[in-house]
Amino acid sequence: MSELFPKIPKISYNNASADPLSFRYYNPDELIMGKPMKEHLRFAMAWWHTLCAEGADMFGPGTADKSFGADKDDWRAHAKAKADAGFELMQKLGIGYFCFHDADIAAEAATLAETNARLDEITDYIKDKMKDTGIKCLWGTSNLFGHKRFMAGAGTSPSVDIYAYAGAKIKKAIELTVKLGGTGYVFWGGREGYETLLNTDMGLELDNLARLMRMAVDYARSIGFTGDFYIEPKPKEPSKHQYDFDVATACNFLRNYGLIKDFKMNVEANHATLAGHTFQHELRVSRVNGVFGSIDANQGDLLLGWDTDQFPSDVYDATLCMYEVLKAGGFTNGGLNFDAKTRRMSYEMEDMFYAFITGMDTFAFGLRKAAQIIEDKRLDGFVAERYAGWKAGLGLDIINNKAGLKELEAHALKAEPALPASGRQELLEGILNRIIVG
Ligand code: XUL
Ligand code: CO
Question: Closest ligand 1 atom, CA of 266?
Answer without folding.
Answer: 9
